[in-house]
Write the structure tokens for this entry.
Amino acid sequence: MTEAVQTFGDSQARRSWFSAMARGMAHKCPECGRGKLFSGYVKTRDNCPSCGLDLTGHRADDAPPYVTIIIVGHVMIPLALAMKQLFDPPITLQFAIWLPLIVLASWALLPASKGALIGLQWANRMHGFAGPDADPDADV
Ligand SMILES: [Zn+2]
């Protein structure tokens, strides 16, 4: 099963937001799924090294930290509270368990959520992913 690679040349082609977000979560280009999205931890490349997609137009801004905080806060904190209520372990053991887990989860989720948001923006032709046919004055 092959998936058609969509480029700006077919500006009317529909883009799959699901595969674009999945590719972004895997730190891959939302268009081709092969090139690396980041040159550092969360520094986005200017262009995809595989297909050349211009990645400078994304506007992830503050959304990835919000998504990371929401996910980590809604998963880890209830688990920590449940552990406290059920087993009442010493506070040092709780810190030894939950602090590394929270840091690791945040460290892993931040680039994944940024990649997913860039993929979503690409799939919806938002911001700099609108293509050459887009109205340059449109503020989408
Ligand atoms: Zn690419």
